[in-house]
Amino acid sequence: MTQNPPSLRPDLAPRALIKDAPRPGQPTIGMVSLGCPKALVDSERILTRLRAEGYAISPDYSGADAVIVNTCGFLDSAKAESLDAIGEALAENGRVIVTGCLGAEPEYITGAHPKVLAVTGPHQYEAVLDAVHRAVPPAPDPFIDLLPASAVSLTPRHYSYLKISEGCNHKCKFCIIPDMRGRLVSRPAHAVIREAEKLVQNGVKELLVISQDTSAYGVDIKHATANGHRAHITDLARDLGSLGAWVRLHYVYPYPHVRDLIPLMADPASGVLPYLDIPFQHAHPDVLRRMARPAAAAKTLDEIAAWRSQCPDITLRSTFIVGYPGETEDEFQTLLDWLDEAQLDRVGCFQYENVAGARSNALPDHVAPEVKQDRWDRFMEKAQAISEAKLAAKVGRVVEAIVEDIDEDGIATCRTWADAPEIDGNLFIDEGTEALAVGDVVKVEVDEAGEYDLWGRVV
């Protein structure tokens, strides 16, 4: 398991699932998409719009008339990575349009890279298209360039991210996402369902529901019902589960109504996977208050126990921050003790970083880098031991898994219900894979377990 944020780059233009070669004279665009899956969805929408306007998608820098870099600005390290990616695109291509979260700070970008053609902010699709039109005028062929039957995808064909809202109403002191992406704006439920139906019709077998605050979906539109679908996460999960694909919920805050999702997760026929990705961030109430987050860690343990009593096979994933300003050794030890009791299945961890514009920067008693590193090491050591024990308990069980890849030696890399792509572990099958194909859902008996991964055989 790696330190968060993970290196999420299933995102370069060469990965776009478009096999058509550009016709002579067709304008061509490349894409680099950094950061979280929400940004990846933005990149897919931009490329889909461009494809519909007659642009080809380049598999490399040299074949593109211009390159779009979709940036991340969540942490200072992410900003640095974004600037590096912009610099690389400028060096390799020379004609670069910048968008995404870091685009909310245009002077920061142009100060480092004054030769970029344009800078636009997050989910400003029209502004990005306008910039592309100026840099590379469209030249559609009305007899060839028709709206494609399916959207451009930057993920494998068998899974897709499904973004249900933009923005966030929380005011966590360490986070500037609400400043960059604004307050919560939920998509109408029927529009989400329509998109999901198209994805499933085109072969998607797993829908990964994402937003900044999935539990709050529909709050801003008063859980409106339209075309038979209600904008509430419980209703949405139930409706999505009826489509025949796996439904995996990410970024779920532990509001009381989350308990209404658990019966769905406990019913294999519902399609809603027994998997909750919940950003707890810390366990000590004083640290949580300094973060401006709910400070009821003990109550959260009660909720976790209730979820497991209803759905024993539920997988709980979370992320935490160590070394937050003012964090004492006793507060950190409370977090370790809480983790011992919570026994979370999948855990990631940030070392706290200042981010320009975050209110946490002004807090007193910042933690020394070497102390943050020590706490991160100790936290991950405990999380690893918990993961190893949890996976060892699965040996001998039969689980359902989806095939992610089959290498030249015939070893299949798979994911179980407990594993989200890019961030969780894998299940490997090293024999009897001749009849398998990427995207297949198979039954596997687990015969070996490691710290984060499983091995097994098809049954």
From TrEMBL:
<dbReference type="InterPro" id="IPR023404">
    <property type="entry name" value="rSAM_horseshoe"/>
</dbReference>
<feature type="binding site">
    <location>
        <position position="72"/>
    </location>
    <ligand>
        <name>[4Fe-4S] cluster 1</name>
    </ligand>
</feature>
<keyword id="KW-0004">4Fe-4S</keyword>
<keyword id="KW-0689">Ribosomal protein</keyword>
<feature type="domain" description="Radical SAM core">
    <location>
        <begin position="154"/>
        <end position="389"/>
    </location>
</feature>
<feature type="domain" description="MTTase N-terminal">
    <location>
        <begin position="27"/>
        <end position="137"/>
    </location>
</feature>
<dbReference type="Pfam" id="PF00919">
    <property type="entry name" value="UPF0004"/>
</dbReference>
<feature type="binding site">
    <location>
        <position position="175"/>
    </location>
    <ligand>
        <name>[4Fe-4S] cluster 2</name>
    </ligand>
</feature>
<dbReference type="InterPro" id="IPR005839">
    <property type="entry name" value="Methylthiotransferase"/>
</dbReference>
<comment type="function">
    <text>Catalyzes the methylthiolation of an aspartic acid residue of ribosomal protein uS12.</text>
</comment>
<dbReference type="GO" id="GO:0103039">
    <property type="term" value="F:protein methylthiotransferase activity"/>
</dbReference>
<feature type="binding site">
    <location>
        <position position="168"/>
    </location>
    <ligand>
        <name>[4Fe-4S] cluster 2</name>
    </ligand>
</feature>
<comment type="similarity">
    <text>Belongs to the methylthiotransferase family. RimO subfamily.</text>
</comment>
<feature type="binding site">
    <location>
        <position position="36"/>
    </location>
    <ligand>
        <name>[4Fe-4S] cluster 1</name>
    </ligand>
</feature>
<feature type="binding site">
    <location>
        <position position="101"/>
    </location>
    <ligand>
        <name>[4Fe-4S] cluster 1</name>
    </ligand>
</feature>
<keyword id="KW-0949">S-adenosyl-L-methionine</keyword>
<protein>
    <recommendedName>
        <fullName>Ribosomal protein uS12 methylthiotransferase RimO</fullName>
        <ecNumber>2.8.4.4</ecNumber>
    </recommendedName>
</protein>
<keyword id="KW-0408">Iron</keyword>
<dbReference type="InterPro" id="IPR038135">
    <property type="entry name" value="Methylthiotransferase_N_sf"/>
</dbReference>
<dbReference type="Pfam" id="PF04055">
    <property type="entry name" value="Radical_SAM"/>
</dbReference>
<keyword id="KW-0479">Metal-binding</keyword>
<keyword id="KW-0687">Ribonucleoprotein</keyword>
<dbReference type="GO" id="GO:0005840">
    <property type="term" value="C:ribosome"/>
</dbReference>
<keyword id="KW-0411">Iron-sulfur</keyword>
<keyword id="KW-0963">Cytoplasm</keyword>
<dbReference type="InterPro" id="IPR007197">
    <property type="entry name" value="rSAM"/>
</dbReference>
<dbReference type="InterPro" id="IPR012340">
    <property type="entry name" value="NA-bd_OB-fold"/>
</dbReference>
<keyword id="KW-0808">Transferase</keyword>
<dbReference type="InterPro" id="IPR002792">
    <property type="entry name" value="TRAM_dom"/>
</dbReference>
<dbReference type="InterPro" id="IPR013848">
    <property type="entry name" value="Methylthiotransferase_N"/>
</dbReference>
<dbReference type="Pfam" id="PF18693">
    <property type="entry name" value="TRAM_2"/>
</dbReference>
<feature type="binding site">
    <location>
        <position position="172"/>
    </location>
    <ligand>
        <name>[4Fe-4S] cluster 2</name>
    </ligand>
</feature>
<dbReference type="InterPro" id="IPR058240">
    <property type="entry name" value="rSAM_sf"/>
</dbReference>
<dbReference type="InterPro" id="IPR005840">
    <property type="entry name" value="Ribosomal_uS12_MeSTrfase_RimO"/>
</dbReference>
<dbReference type="InterPro" id="IPR006638">
    <property type="entry name" value="Elp3/MiaA/NifB-like_rSAM"/>
</dbReference>
<feature type="domain" description="TRAM">
    <location>
        <begin position="392"/>
        <end position="459"/>
    </location>
</feature>
